[in-house]
Every structure is written in structure tokens, then in C-alpha cells.
Amino acid sequence: MSSTHAYEVRVAEESADREACFAVRKEVFVREQGVPEDIEYDAYDETAVHVLAVRADGVPLGTGRLLHGEAAAAKTGGDLTVGSLGRLAVAQQARGLGIGVALVRAIEDVARARGLAAVDLHAQTHALGFYERLGYEAYGPEYPEAGIPHRAMRRVLRPTG
After folding, report:
1. H or E stretch at 108
2. What gap in Å lies between CA 29 and CA 88, rounded to an integer?
3. With 90 as the cut, is the pLDDT of residue 160 above it?
């Protein structure tokens, strides 16, 4: 990877990092995809673990979040051992650099650290292949979410190392 594409992925613990996550989501979901802003941000943002990909010069490139425990239960069929990966977004200028993969793997690492056995997600149907390459399997029928076709997917986590 050249230095012009150097980036790091980290848990967004500082308020500036969380704001950068929200800015990427606004760019991708609200501006590009037309998701209404009032449904893009929700009460889950308060308790979710957010991850941020940021370029070496501080420019935010991508984000995602993990819901766990009771917050994830409504999205995972009530199974408290399953986390819910969501709001995965990569800025347009940063696509094709492996950032999406790095964000998914970072979220999975957080899920493992919290003792979760699997991760579910609601994938936009155009992204099914991306998630399948990362070991996720689709289940259930296609459904609309924010007016965009989705499918539920799951990956069982195995310990690393």
C-alpha cells in the first residue's frame, strides 16, 4: 500500500472520532443513497461500538458500528450471543482500497472481545458478494430497508490465533 493510501482503523472512542463516523455516514447514506437523515441516526448510536477508518492525515474514510446485547436482540432474532454489524460506509474517494474489509474485520474483533459467537448484518443486495467473500451467509427473503433492497446475513465467529 502506498503512503497516499495509508490509513488506520480504530474504535471511535473520542467525540471527534464519533463525529467523523457520522460525517461519513451522512456522505454515503444520506447524500449518495438518499436515506432520510432522520432514520440514518438512531438511539442505537449511543450504545453502539463505532469503528473509524482514517487516513494518515486525519481524513475520515469509512465507518461501521456493532450493536451488542439487548440493543442487537431485535436485529438478531433475540440471540444475545449475536452482534449486529451495521452502518458500514466507505467514502467514495476511498473505495477499492480494502477499507470495507478492514472495517468488517475490526468490528468482528470487537465482537469476539465481547464474547459474541456470531455477527449478523442487513446487507444491501448489491453488496451481498462483498460480504459472502468475507464469510457471511445470506438467510431469509429480500426486504426493503430505507427503500433499498436488503438481505439478512450471518457469520459465525471463530477465535483468532
Report:
1. helix 99-113
2. 10
3. no
pLDDT digits (tens, 9 = 90+) for 22-57: 999 999 999 999 999 999 999 999 999 999 999 999
pTM of the full structure: 0.92
For residue 146, the tally of other CB atoms under 10 A from its CB is 13
Q: Is the dihedral of CA 43, 49, 53, 58 positive or negative?
A: positive
Pick from 142, 116, 115: nearest CA to 127: 142
Select from 3.60.130.10, 3.50.50.60, 3.30.499.10, 3.40.630.30 the CATH code of 3-156.
3.40.630.30
Domain-wise residue ranges, the chain: 3-156
What are the cell numbers at 55? Answer: 487516513
- Record the cell numbers describing residue 149, joined without a space: 433492497
Q: 110-130: per-residue pLDDT in tens? A: 999 999 999 999 999 999 999
Neighbours of 45 (CB within 10 A): 16
E strands, the chain, where?
7-11, 49-55, 60-67, 82-90, 118-124, 137-145, 148-156
Per DSSP bridges, beta strands 137-145 and 118-124 are unpaired
- Coil vs helix vs strand at 161: coil
Query: Which residues is 156 bridged to in the sheet?
Result: 118
